[in-house]
Amino acid sequence: MSRVVIAMLLILAPSIVSSRPMSVDDVLGMERLDRAQLSPDGMLLAAVVLRPARDGEIYGRAAYEIDPSRADIWLIDRSTGVRRNLTEGHAEAAGSWCATWSPDGQRLAFLSTRPEGTEPKGGNNVRLYMWDRTTDRVHRLSDQAIVTQTRYGSGVNRLDFAGPGSNSPNVCTIGDENAPFVWLDGSRLLAAMLPPGSISSLLEATERFYRHVSMTRDKVREGQEAVVSASASGAERTTVGSDQEAILTIVNVETGTSTDLAHVPAYPFKGGLAVRVSPRGDRAAVMATTGVLAPAKDASFPRNDGEWLVQKKLGLVDLHRPKAIEWMKLPDEAALPLLLLGWAGDAGDTFTFAARPKLESQAVQYFAANTVTGVIRPEADRKKDIMSSRPAGLPEKAQLIGRDAKGIVWSEQTAQGLFVRASARNGKAVTLLELNRHLAAVETGRAFEFDYLSGHGEPLKAAVLLPPGYKGGRVPVITWGYAVATVPSWSDYSLDLYMPGIYNLHLYAAQGFAILLPSIPLKRDGKQDPLTELALDVDPAVDRLVELGIADRTRVGFMGQSFGGYTALGLATQSHRFNAIAAIAPISDLRTYYGAFDPTARGYDLDEQDKSDNVVIAELTSPAAQGPPYAKGEFYQRNSPLSFVDRVNAPVLLIHGDLDIRGTTYQSEAFYTGLWRQGKTARILRYGGENHSLAGSPATVRSVVSEICEWFHKYLSPGSAR
């Protein structure tokens, strides 16, 4: 016991008496702060808030917790705290987000799905809108659809737009989406519009698949036209279709006119479209993706990053008059542009970018392009120190929103709710916005860390979340794990009270389970077999929890998602510590996972293999085979849980979405079939329309949580039979 290190991870003393455990309604009822931005004069805060996942909304466009088509823009007076919902989209199931102030602070541009005229509830596209501070009027700037970047997973239409004097993108929400527009001045916007008839990716990424299925049904019924999609490599490799493009457009909000400047490639898979406006605002450097690069036979992939796997072009566009974009001829050492950095100095004659000579090159070189002479020359590493000092008075875990002469504005998530606050001259904080106050009534369990030794004798840490109201004694345990994740970073992330959907572990603790998070520090060098190493890191954590008097050795389960699902199935074949297993979106067979296409690529009329990231993930990250199956066949065989399905003794619950972009439902189906063939206890659930995170629909979240809880209650109850 002397080695136990108690470390409170989450629990803050509530301001009111807690009265009930966490429920699915509490999780689905959370609001999310997507983005907040101060007006240039510092008087108004524009906060984008995602509404709770309740009835009357439109779902299935993205994981429910990050779907901006369920967002509203709130305007908050910084001095008085008076606030109002500017967009009020719930009645029409409309979303408004990416709120961006004009340089003079008189206008707020944003994206929205709000319907007008005969457009359906929920909207039929994403368009550019504006609020005028003087007239207090919200109106649509163009009926033309605008490019949008999808969130989570394999990003479609990635964007990176920066306005005059800035080399940082206009961010909608950090890490998930950048804006397709920037302000040029107080009255003009530069935006990436879509050709007529196109639909923004936010609405299209999933719907395209269903439209393709419907078209297939009709064509097959007619019997006159074959429905076929082709992928090709080598000499048969084709190029990107001409319809995959964006239109760089100047939108004048004062005159209500739009001017198309140039059509640029906008290949949707892996890469993106970057734009940097010169300091004088007269032109813009453009880096556009044209397609996915074909790998060389014996060459390795440089990184697990789509930006490193695509071909891009670099060019200039004149912002004063429409004309064809001027594409630049690049030297051999910069044959593959990677990143558009920005303009150097105030003159606006030179911009910088990063590039490399070929696909397998891991070293990046920096270049300066002089737009007057046309000379492109190598230059020294231009990376800058982007670390900024933390303002005085900012709470430890708070997120800074803005700071000026008036003070700072920040957001912080606590056990009592999510708050946006501003500093005041008297030194006290003023609360500008309160969200998720219902969490103050939720009772959560105590969390702490403890030390243990792996099977190799390596010192590791684990974390445990106890059930609410735990008074001591042994309780059933659900182990939540993900190979390569280690405590404390794994526990800080996984035990967050604000985790969405099925990933909120407080839901399972509320059912009376202790939640164990072990460290699983696998080496990913292709030399170590991850499958056989799993139990050496996880089993000792279970044993230690038994020694601490918390775990009942006969009632321990394991649950994981994605590579955590791989971990779950791997432990089912390699360990006998677990009395029940739940594997969510798992990988069971590395060989078939490696070659699986992304099902949501159907209907793009592009090479569907290009959308899948599985090849690079398998070779470089999970499980880091360091090569393809034909070269590393034994490694793939030895490290596939399916190869050892005959060793499973615990009941196994398998959960998968039929639109999973990582591993197709085959990964669960094959493992289930192996158990079925042996007459072993198993259950498989396949959710229609769901992706890798199984979070597209609130109904799915409710169902999955219920199924998991019932599974573990059934098989971790005293005297339960396997």
What does this structure look like?
Residues 1-19 form the signal peptide. One of its GO terms (biological process) is proteolysis. One of its GO terms (molecular function) is serine-type endopeptidase activity. This protein has 722 residues and is α+β, with helices and mostly antiparallel strands. The chain has 3 domains: 141-213 and 240-384, no CATH class; 399-439; 441-715, Alpha/Beta hydrolase fold, catalytic domain (Rossmann fold, 3-Layer(aba) Sandwich), CATH 3.40.50.1820. An 8-stranded mixed beta sheet has the order 30-31-33-32-34-35-36-37, with helices on both faces. A 5-stranded mixed beta sheet has the order 10-17-18-19-20, with no helix packed on it. A 4-stranded antiparallel beta sheet has the order 2-3-4-5, with no helix packed on it. Strand 30 (447-453) and strand 31 form a beta hairpin. Helix 5 crosses helix 6. The radius of gyration is 27 Å and the shape is globular. Mean pLDDT is 91; it is low at 1-17 and 384-388.
| Computed CA radius of gyration, to the nearest angstrom | 27 Å
* Tertiary shape: globular
Which stretches of 5+ consecutive residues score pLDDT under 50? 1-17, 384-388
Instruction: Determine the strand fraction and express it as a percent band.
Output: 25-35%
Task: Note the main sheet.
Answer: 8 strands, mixed
Q: Estimate percent helicity.
A: 10-25%
In terms of structural class, how would the helical and strand content be classed?
A: alpha+beta
Count of β-strands: 37
Tell me the CATH architecture of the largest domain.
3-Layer(aba) Sandwich
The residue-averaged pLDDT reads 91
State the end-to-end CA separation: 32 Å
CATH domain class of the largest domain:
Alpha Beta
Number of helices: 11
Pfam families: PD40, Peptidase_S9
Protein name: Peptidase S9 prolyl oligopeptidase catalytic domain-containing protein
Domain Peptidase S9 prolyl oligopeptidase catalytic: 537-717
Signal peptide: 1-19
